[in-house]
Structure formats: C-alpha cells, structure tokens
C-alpha cells in the first residue's frame, strides 16, 4: 500500500515546474526534431530553390559523394578535428599544470590566455588572416629582421592551409580548456600530492596515473566544448580563407551553405546536412551508451 501511494506523490512533486517546461519541450520537438525529420525526408527529393515532393531516391547522396569539393571538406574537417582535439587538450592541460604551481601574476596570465575565447570566430579569423599574411604579417616581420629566405604563408598554400586555420582555432579555444583543467587541478586533494612526494613518485607519473584519471569529468566536458568548436569552424573558414585557395580549405558546413544558398540546390544541401547528422549520431550514441549505460548497469 505504501508503494502504491508513493508513486502519485512523486508524480505530483514540482508539478508547476513540469507544467512550465511543457512549452520548451514542445518547441524542441517541433523545431529540432521536426526540422531534422523534414531535412532528412527532403534530402531524397530533387528540391532546388524551393522544396518539392519529387523523390529521386539516393541520387542526391550519389552526387554528394562523387563531388571532389565534399570529399575535400570531409578530409579537412577530419584533420582539423583530430588535431584540434589533441592539441587543445594537451596544451590546455600543460598550461593549467604550470599555472597550478602558484606562480606570480597568475591572475594576469590566466586573463591573457582566456581573453581570445571572448572574441568571436569571425574576429579571430580576421586577426589571424592579418597575422599570417605574407605581405605584412609574421613572414614580413621576420624577413625585415634579415632572414630573407624565411617563408610562412600557410593561408596561401593549398597543401597546408587547414593547418593555418588550426592555429587560429587553437589560439581561440585553448584558454578556456586551460581554465577548465586548472579548476580540476585545484579540486585535487593536497594530501594526494603529499603522499606522492613521500612515496617518491615522479611528478609526471603523478599526473599521468593519478591526477588525470581523477579529472575524467573535466576531460569529458572539455571534449564536448572542443567538439562544438569544431562544428563552428565554418565561421573561421569564412573569415580566414573563404574556402580557398580554390576549394582547399572547404568544410562540410560551408558546403551545405553553398549548396543551399549559392547553388540554390536544397536537396543537395539537405543530403550533406543529413550526412553530418549521421556522423554525429555514430559518434555520440556509442559514447552515451558507454558513459551512461555502464553506470546504470553498475
């Protein structure tokens, strides 16, 4: 009898908050879920300037994967995503470990390192477009110092242009990752450091085998934030290179925009959007299952 009467009590608890959340849930279902389903359905049509219900099967996807521009954009996103994830985590953690040594002017250094994150990707891209410009950027400054043979123009070299974009992206996001890591390090009990020193454990082993596993939640949060930055690399590309030289710095998000608004081919843009969504699902679903399903079973 107690168990039967307890369920209604739990259901009616915080009822006003649940009622207030109904508009938000309905909006999410209509806008996000409904928009996603609509995009997937119309990716199988021959929609051009306006949507039309003329289904063409997988022809949009065949055309998509036969496009060199799409293949280059996938390659660029893979290079940028993997390197951005690795370097942002490593550099952010190293900077946090250095600041955690109670150095002088820590607040000043932390502010300087975090400041780039306050800028938009457009501002960051324009700033680094100027810095990497061979006529008045780093190359010009070094050559004016007497090093006439010095060459550094990644944004104008189709073979390495994505790495020039990567430099700007790391400059933008590393400060935030550093602050997250520093907060995690400050949450480590001081007794752990003392015990490691008493046992004679080298500092690098303390970080690698003790501290980093304890910061698992911080690393997951950092990875999610970095992943969101990888998706937003569209702004950085537009500001720095515009997709050039040629199509050497194209990314999937720009391909979608060009297909839908410049080429006025909604079907092709929807097909590219669906492939991006499928990639996200393939990555997120297994991670969510391992992260939350394992805990539930435990």
From TrEMBL:
Subcellular location: Cell membrane
A Pfam family reported for this protein in Swiss-Prot or TrEMBL: BPD_transp_1
Domain ABC transmembrane type-1: 74-289
InterPro entries registered for this protein in UniProt: ABC_transporter_permease (IPR051393), MetI-like (IPR000515), MetI-like_sf (IPR035906)
Membrane-crossing residue ranges in chain numbering: 21-44, 77-99, 111-131, 160-185, 206-231, 270-290
PROSITE patterns in the record: ABC_TM1
CDD domains with a match to the protein in the record: TM_PBP2
Key words of the record: Cell membrane, Membrane, Transmembrane, Transmembrane helix, Transport
Predominant cellular place of this UniProt entry's protein: membrane
GO cellular component annotations of the record: plasma membrane
Membrane topology, as annotated: Multi-pass membrane protein
GO biological process: transmembrane transport
Family the entry assigns: Belongs to the binding-protein-dependent transport system permease family.
The name this protein goes by in its record: Sugar ABC transporter permease
Species annotation: Roseibium limicola
